[in-house]
Amino acid sequence: MKSDQGTEQIRKNSGRSALAAAVMVLAGPAAVAAGRPLLAGVFGVFLVVFCVVKWGICGGMVSAAWASAVMLGAFAAGTAYLTGTELFTAFLTYFALGAGLGRVIEVLRAQQRAMEQTNESLRREKVFAGKVMETLREREKKYRDMAFSMPGRSEIEKMVSHMKVISGVLSCFVETPLERKDEATGQFLRRTGEFFKFDRCRLFMMSKDAATLANTHRWFSDAAGVRSDLAEDIDVRDVPWLMERLQSREPVKIDDVGEMPPAAEAEKSMLERQGVSSLLCFPVVIEDKLKGFFEFGVMGEKGMERSDGDVASLKAVVDIAECALARYESEERFLRLIYHDRLTDVFNRAFFEEEMERLDVKRQQPLSIIVADVRGLKHLNAEMGRDRDDELIVKAAAILRRACRREDILARWSGGEFVILFPQTGSERVEKICERIRRMFAGVEEELVPVSIALGCATKESALQDINEVRKNAKKRMELNKCM
Q1: For residue 371, what are the β-bridge partners?
Q2: Which of 398, 388, 375, 400 minimizes the C-alpha distance to 446?
Q3: In whole angstroms, how far apart are CA 286 and each of 173, 223, 293, 409, 419?
């Protein structure tokens, strides 16, 4: 926009300059014709000064000289014609034409030089543009290589989904209390099975004697058509090939059950009987000991081959669960030391007192208590020693445990004395439980020494009753029965 305005201004200035020069050229001969040569001379001087000022500044002194020659030639030609000097007029006319032609040639040469300069500038611009394009091509190649090296859309979506399932696993276990361990483990198996498209996910934990693998938690997909409440324990002697590989602390990957090696014939038969086509097992190692394993299986005629990346992703998820199980085991061991009797593995007196206070609420009434004392301990201790005494106490605790429900609280109070707390159990029912316990102890002997137990019971049926007084009443009745 600014360049257009400048061009228009130059055009106007050039027109005005040409008009002024023409006026002075015509004014000189007119002054001569009027008989005033001095005025004509003045116009001639003004014409030369005008040419020098206008064209000398814009085009240099050479341009000013050519312009002066043209203008003076035209000035003299007009003067000669008006005075009747024809030869001189012709001479001056040709001089003016030659000077004008010279000016035209000079202008053309100037335009040629300007064009050459323009072409040189264009050539330089072209070279620069070529370098810019080469740089752009190099950067394009670099960015294209970077784009090809980045994961594709499907890989990115898979990574995002993997992060989500890890987040879900963490939410299952992080800050989940010990009493909700089973719920958290079940959620972990379900989420893992749904994300990795398994038909069944199970957790097996080793028994204390390392002879049995107990199926503690399980999840089955709807397509599996298997009842998720059915547990299946495994004798370690029935799966020697699997146990050998689990002991190596590495995942066991079976893409096709039908192609298992001959050494795994027992495992192959068991899996085929269960309808499993492919399997992944991850050992659960806590404190450098094999405690069990996670099993992830696909059921049906056709299995599902898993890539190394899938196995690594699943291993990362399983590691989180393994850490959570280690934490739960540590908490259980700690609580066992605090609240369990080390000899009999039943609850101790401190835990019983806390539970008695916790359950002493209206919705748990009637609340009954049985106090039991093993007879014959003193005689057995005197005859056989203290070790036999402890064996009898352990045996009595085992019998009492079988007589209790899951929600009942069995604790060793002291020596051979035990207490049992029965929530939501009336007096009539607790009397029947006492009779059942007596029958269970009947005929039990320890090194030919008859073993019996004295029992006493009491029930809290009103909020006005003190639970500690109820326990004392139960103990008084036990002592009376002990003397009989």
Answers
A1: 419, 456
A2: 388
A3: 16, 33, 11, 30, 35
Tell me the per-residue pLDDT of 186-210, one tens digit each, with 9 for 90 and over.
888 988 888 888 999 999 999 988 8
| Cα 52 to Cα 395: distance, rounded to the nearest angstrom | 135
> What whole-number distance in Å separates Cα of residue 245 and Cα of residue 252?
7
- Taking residues 412-436, report their average pLDDT: 92
Task: Sort residue 424 into left (φ over 0), alpha (ψ -120 to 50) or beta.
Answer: left
Per-position b or e across 11-37, b if 16+ CB within 10 A of its CB: eeeeeebeeebeebbebbbebbeeeee
Residue range(s) in the chain whose domain bears CATH number 3.30.450.40: 160-332
Contact 299, 276 (CB under 8 A): yes
Distance of CA 250 to the CA centre of its chain: 25
Model pLDDT for residues 274-308, shown as the tens digit of each residue: 889 999 999 999 888 999 999 999 988 776 777 78
Residue 148 three-state SS: helix
How much is the pLDDT for 150? 45
305: helix, coil or strand?
A: coil
Where does 261-384 show beta strands of DSSP type E?
276-286, 289-299, 367-375
Tokens 């009797």 belong to residue: 341
Neighbours of 275 (CB within 10 A): 17
DSSP state of 451: -
Q: Which CATH class is domain 160-332?
A: alpha beta
CA torsion 316-321-327-329 (nearest 10°) is -130
Cα distance between residue 172 and residue 193, in whole Å: 14
Pairing of strands 445-446, 276-286: unpaired
* Predicted confidence (pLDDT) per residue in 318-341, tens digit: 888 888 888 888 888 887 788 889
**Contact by Cβ (8 Å): 325, 337:** no
* CATH number listed for the domain at residues 349-483: 3.30.70.270
125 touches 113 (CB < 8 A): no
Interhelix angle 386-402/377-384, rounded to 10 degrees, is: 140
Closest CA to 72 of 53, 55, 54, 49: 49
Q: Return d(Cα 340, Cα 351) in angstroms, integer.
A: 8
Q: Which residues pair with 3 in a beta bridge?
A: none
Q: Return d(Cα 278, Cα 361) in angstroms, integer.
A: 52
Q: Within the chain, which residue ranges are assigned CATH 3.30.70.270?
A: 349-483
Q: Are 184 and 320 in contact (CB under 8 A)?
A: no
- CB burial of residue 384 (10 Å; 0-12, 13-18, 19+): middle
